[in-house]
Amino acid sequence: MIKKAYITYNEVHKLCQKRSKEILDTFKPNLMIAIGGGGYVPARILRSFLKRDGAPNIPIQAIGLSLYESLSSDSADAAEEPGTKVTRTQWLDLSSLQMDSLIGKNILIVDEVDDTRTTLEYAVRELEKDVETARKQSARTEKTNFYIFVLHNKVKPKKGRLPEDMENGKTYISAMETEDVWICYPWEAQNIDQHDKDAQTHGIRAITTAGISDREVSKHSHNVKNEYNEGGGKLDEE
Ligand code: 5GP
């Protein structure tokens, strides 16, 4: 049974705040695309920290992608089992007006957690395709840049692949690197008081400090994989 770790709204808020200045200074996003449902709350919180004086709020668009199916219907916070296929439950309105508005933008894709990376791979690949189609249709040449922000990145072997600049951390930020635990987010809770109590006893632990060099992260990821191997624990692939 996979270990569960609980995170409170307060902690989510602070995780968004923690990397906001860096996101603003380096990515300079002018549009966010939140992956539903877990990306909605972080995107909204982040928007408050990305607001510049005198500038309008950064717009948030939503897409819905589903990879996981609940194993148990009677327990709302039961850990879930990964699926293999990404299903679109909601997508951008592909009318030319909306797609046109993606061209030449710095787009920040927001999700709550990068687990196997399958969902993020799908989102980036499909959004890049759509922008390319829109660019051809409108004969516009400005470059659209994609960036990623997640609250948690589970340090584990990933199934999904991202463009190189994302993989090496240049265009990808996670607020916290964690072990491969099942993270219980507050918006999934049926009883928020109990959830907050659980967060006191089974809170989430960072395994690296966000902001350390890519080299150190990959070294750390390597160590974590080895620990899993030595302990005879879960190791998906590689
Ligand atoms: P991935 O495609 O990276 O394996 O998973 C992405 C999606 O799976 C997330 O957006 C989220 O909906 C779900 N997911 C993966 N790991 C967790 C977790 O630890 N806790 C929760 N609540 N959802 C998770």
TrEMBL record:
<dbReference type="GO" id="GO:0046100">
    <property type="term" value="P:hypoxanthine metabolic process"/>
</dbReference>
<dbReference type="GO" id="GO:0005737">
    <property type="term" value="C:cytoplasm"/>
</dbReference>
<dbReference type="GO" id="GO:0004422">
    <property type="term" value="F:hypoxanthine phosphoribosyltransferase activity"/>
</dbReference>
<dbReference type="InterPro" id="IPR029057">
    <property type="entry name" value="PRTase-like"/>
</dbReference>
<protein>
    <recommendedName>
        <fullName>Phosphoribosyltransferase domain-containing protein</fullName>
    </recommendedName>
</protein>
<keyword id="KW-0808">Transferase</keyword>
<keyword id="KW-0175">Coiled coil</keyword>
<dbReference type="GO" id="GO:0032264">
    <property type="term" value="P:IMP salvage"/>
</dbReference>
<dbReference type="InterPro" id="IPR000836">
    <property type="entry name" value="PRTase_dom"/>
</dbReference>
<keyword id="KW-0328">Glycosyltransferase</keyword>
<feature type="compositionally biased region" description="Basic and acidic residues">
    <location>
        <begin position="213"/>
        <end position="238"/>
    </location>
</feature>
<dbReference type="GO" id="GO:0032265">
    <property type="term" value="P:XMP salvage"/>
</dbReference>
<feature type="region of interest" description="Disordered">
    <location>
        <begin position="211"/>
        <end position="238"/>
    </location>
</feature>
<feature type="coiled-coil region">
    <location>
        <begin position="117"/>
        <end position="144"/>
    </location>
</feature>
<dbReference type="GO" id="GO:0032263">
    <property type="term" value="P:GMP salvage"/>
</dbReference>
